[in-house]
Design a protein that fits this description.
Radius of gyration: 17 Å
Shape: elongated
Largest sheet: none
Strand content: under 5%
Structural class: mainly alpha
Number of strands: 0
Order of helices and strands: HHHHHH
Length: 85
Amino acid sequence: MSMHIARKVVDFFGERPQPAPEVESLSKREHELLTLLAQGFLYKEIADRMAISLNTVRTYIQRIYEKLHVQSRTEATAKFLRTDL
């Protein structure tokens, strides 16, 4: 492998993705909730950990989906994990 190609490979893998503006728009609590969601916790478990009601979790989820422009838990988690490394 030439030095030129090696440098391109190192540069490519050395770049960290910039957070999407949508992810940056999340509040601290929305970010916390999305972190728990990405870790696989159920809504009830998230409510217990954050000391909020199940309805509040659902409200946060709705707002997160709107801000991230997604329609499912999987899409939200994938977008979050891609940008929040």
